[in-house]
Amino acid sequence: MGWGGTRHYTGSRVMCVGVPMQLVAIDGIAGRAIDDGQLMLLDLSLLPQARPGDWVLGFLGTAREILPETEALLIRKALAGLAAVMAGGDHGDAFADLDARTPSLPPHLQAALDAGRTTG
What we know:
By secondary structure, the chain is an alpha+beta fold. The chain contains 3 helices and 5 strands; from the N terminus they run E-E-E-E-E-H-H-H.
């Protein structure tokens, strides 16, 4: 099952996520991209510089960002791990890139913390 298309779910646990897809063709502002073996149509209005072969972050039928291939593959691996966990399985090594990393705050929050501010 691909992640980037429109799906209809029953129940209360629905999640929208951006999905890395590789562009295979472009016609004006319309792009065709592969998502988990399925051909998807994407609006490329926000990415006029996109070219076939580029990895893009597709969200609700619109390409929002061009991604480096390494980042796109890491995100796809994480989404596969998430799907496995949601199906009752194990995430395997889907988050291995995060295992050795210590958490860090965004720069503006780290600066506030360093200045002794702990509330809004």
